[in-house]
Amino acid sequence: MRIGKFIHAFPGRSILLSLVLSSSALGAQTSPQPVGIFQDHADIGTVAHAGSAQFDSALGAYTLTGSGANIWFTADAFQFAWKQVSGDVALSADVVFPNAGVNPHRKAVLMIRQSLDADSPYADVALHGEGLTSLQYRDAKGEATHEIRSNLSAPRRLRIEKRGDFIYMFLAQNAGEPLRASGASIKIPIKGSFYIGIGLSSHEKDVVEKAAFSNVDLSATKSLTAPPVLYSTLESVYVASTDRRVLYTAPSHFEAPNWTRDGSSILFNSNGRILRLPVAGGNPETIDTGFATGCNNDHGISPDQLWLAISDVSQPDHQSRIYIVPIGGGAPRLVTQKSPSYWHGWSPDGRTLAFTGQRDGDGDIYTIPAAGGEETRLTTAKGLDDGPEYSPDGKYIYFNSERTGHMQIWRMLADGGNQEQVTFGERNDWFPHISPDGRSMVFVSYEKDVTGHPPNKDVELRLMTLADRKITVLAKLFGGQGTINVPSWSPDGREVAFVSYQLLPADEAATK
After folding, report:
1. How many CB atoms within 10 Å of residue 231?
2. 186 phi/psi in degrees, rounded to 5
3. What's the pLDDT tens digit per position in 248-289?
4. Which of 196, 67, 51 is nearest to 122 (CA)?
5. 278 and 145, same structural domain?
6. 342 and 432 share a domain?
7. What is the largest CA-CA distance in the chain?
8. What is the C-alpha separation between 173 and 158, in angstroms, rounded?
9. Which residues, including other chains, have CB under 8 Å from residue 17's CB and lie 6 or more apart?
10. Which of 201, 224, 247 represents a domain boundary (last residue)?
């Protein structure tokens, strides 16, 4: 056994990383078959044709052959070359399929795997034969696999990186270009010693495929030498499968995605401005909001998609007020005379706005005509009431309230009557958003000891079916404030948009 030790410093802590070369591979083979830097290789799961792993020392390149039905569902079948390690570590490689191949969904992967069992928890960066690239993961032994799809097709260089409980995907479109954060990250409990390496599945149990891995680098994650770089990532999650996709990522802070009613774009705020991003891809463009250049994360689109409500702090007193501007941009029209006021919902007929108002130090739910006029107070309970949103039929307003001692979801009739609690757990639940068909509610959920809705916390997006009040988890992520402050369902009700965040060392944000 040989042990190489690395020290990795991260904010407020130090981690000792040990790359442990084991003499056996937890039941896969009794005689190790070293391949380059990897200590062993074998077929994982049930395969019809034995795979192989070869290393060309002159070229520093690896070639895997393998069959296997898939790396997916609840168990995997593939060829894997690995090293057993512990701590925080990263693996990078240029990856190509040298042959045309049979199935466009064949996968060449860089993988971190808890064990060599077919149903082990794992995460991998998977390059498919058709160019699709994703961060795949299985949370627990025997559970289904999920993925976060990249918005980059057919990258040449891949990197998987473990930092604490989080796994990150880095990509470079072409060989020789620096790797960049893809925006895809997942919290997954890979503990103690684990396996890291390269793999191949043909996605056809009776077909043998080939993949080539070159410029392979396995090392400890780099030490933090400067304050971390904040990356914001606009994602969507498919409600039926809980699979996710990256729509846009940038080394800057942005918040609060809001899907347009026609499904073509998503709006979000950054640096006081409202931006519009085409869902099909591209770069965001700034919407003209006139003098209102201090927009916060409370904004939304009218039911007829002609108007945009914004909450802005650009006036000299820096108090949030609600304005309405044309959806394509234009001069703001003041709606709320009193402040602070934070928009959260349009009534289905477009005539009324629901908002959170702070009056005399108390935060409560108010409504006001969209045309302007007198505000109406709907809640008076002790503690903050926030995040009001109308149900699609206009009957209810859902909101979050801390009147019970910690934040939970409530609802009331649109006139403020019959206020009733909806969630009852130990976690702190914020910002309810009702699906277009009125059957489901998504909200962001903090751990029970978190006060308020701060940024940079481990949170969950949770889904409640309103008929039976059953709750499931849509996504686990690093986020919180800015993740899902405003309505973000796709018009067809299939997806929910949200923002996740990553704190990465400066020398990891773009590295070779």
Report:
1. 22
2. -145, 140
3. 999 999 999 999 999 999 999 999 999 999 999 899 999 999
4. 196
5. no
6. yes
7. 80
8. 9
9. 5, 6, 7, 8, 85, 86, 87, 88, 89, 220, 221
10. 224
Cis status of the peptide bond prior to 436, with omega within 30 of 0: no
| Six-digit token string for 403 | 């009147």
Tell me: do 259 and 181 sit in the same domain: no
Cα–Cα nearest to 210, from 131, 58, 125, 108: 108
For residue 501, pLDDT over 60 is answered with: yes
- Mean pLDDT over 176-186 rounds to 95
Give the H/E segment covering residue 236.
Answer: strand 229-238
Q: How far is CA 205 from CA 127, 136, 418, in A?
A: 18, 20, 59
CA pair distance 298, 295, nearest whole angstrom: 8
Half-sphere exposure of 456 (CA within 13 A, CB side): 8
State which of 23-37, 103-117, 214-228 shows the largest mean pLDDT: 103-117
No. of helices (H) and no. of strands (E), the chain: 1, 42
Categorize the per-residue pLDDT at 506 as very low, low, confident or very high, splitting at 50, 70 and 90. confident
Whether the per-residue pLDDT at 164 is higher than 70: the answer is yes
Q: What is the DSSP letter of 453?
A: -
133 and 260 co-located in one domain: no
Say if residue 12's pLDDT is above 50.
Answer: no
Half-sphere exposure of 257 (CA within 13 A, CB side): 29
CATH number assigned to the domain comprising residue 448? 2.120.10.30
Do 79 and 41 contact (CB within 8 A), yes or no? yes
Give me the amino acid identity at 211. A
Residue 20, pLDDT above cutoff 50: no
Q: Would 512 be classed as within a structural domain?
A: no
- Which residue from 142, 144, 104 is spatially nearest to 126, judged by alpha carbons? 104
Q: What is the pLDDT of residue 13?
A: 34
Q: Does residue 28 carry a pLDDT above 50?
A: no
- End-to-end, the C-alpha distance of the chain in Å comes to 30
Q: Which of 47, 29, 195, 187 is nearest to 115 (CA)?
A: 195
What is the dihedral angle through the alpha carbons of 188, 190, 195, 197, rounded to the nearest 10 degrees?
Answer: 20
> Which of these, 48, 88, 27, 37, lies nearest to 198 by C-alpha position?
37
Q: What's the token pair of residue 244?
A: 């996710």
Residue 510: what pLDDT? 52
What is the rounded CA–CA span in Å between residue 27 and residue 47? 16
Q: Give the pLDDT of residue 225.
A: 66
More confident call, 243 vs 32: 243
Dihedrals phi, psi of 509, to nearest 5 degrees: -65, -35
170 and 277 in a single domain? The answer is no
Strands 229-238 and 495-504: antiparallel
Whether residue 58 is found in the same domain as residue 168: yes
Are residues 201 and 261 part of one domain? Answer: no
What average pLDDT is seen over the chain?
92
Range of the domain at 26: 3-224
* Claim to verify: residue 282 and residue 238 sit in the same structural domain: yes
Q: What is the pTM of this model?
A: 0.91
Q: Which pLDDT belongs to residue 176?
A: 86
Question: In this structure, is residue 128 part of a structural domain?
Answer: yes
